[in-house]
Amino acid sequence: MSRRPRARIRWNADQALGRALAGAVRGLLLGAEHLLAESRKEVSIAEGTLDRSGVATVDEHDLVAGVTP
Questions:
Q1: Which of 18, 31, 35, 48 has its CA 20 to 30 A from that of 8?
Q2: Is there a contact between 57 and 31 (Cβ–Cβ < 8 Å)?
Q3: How many angstroms separate the CA atoms of 11 and 30, rounded?
Q4: With 80 as the cut, is the pLDDT of residue 51 above it?
């Protein structure tokens, strides 16, 4: 009977969770920036003030994104 090969796996939970959080934050920011870009297409361009004042932000602690005009 032959021996089965063994495999070792090292699970680095802190690194995995950190990367998952970073990916979630990046995804939220990309979504908020997309929403901002789409909303700018509907803004009146009379003076351009409203268009320039828009900001996309992400709260990394609560994983919430926001877009403000």
A1: 18
A2: no
A3: 29
A4: no
Q: Are 29 and 65 in contact (CB under 8 A)?
A: yes
Rounded distance, CA 25 to CA 62, Å? 10
The three-class DSSP label of residue 14 is helix
**Residues ≥6 apart with Cβ < 8 Å to 39:** 54, 67, 69
Contact 56, 65 (CB under 8 A): yes
Q: Give pTM, 2 decimals.
A: 0.74
Residue 60 scores a pLDDT above 90? yes
What tokens appear for 45 in the block? Answer: 């361009």
32 sits in which H/E element:
helix 13-40
CA 47 distance to own-chain centroid: 31
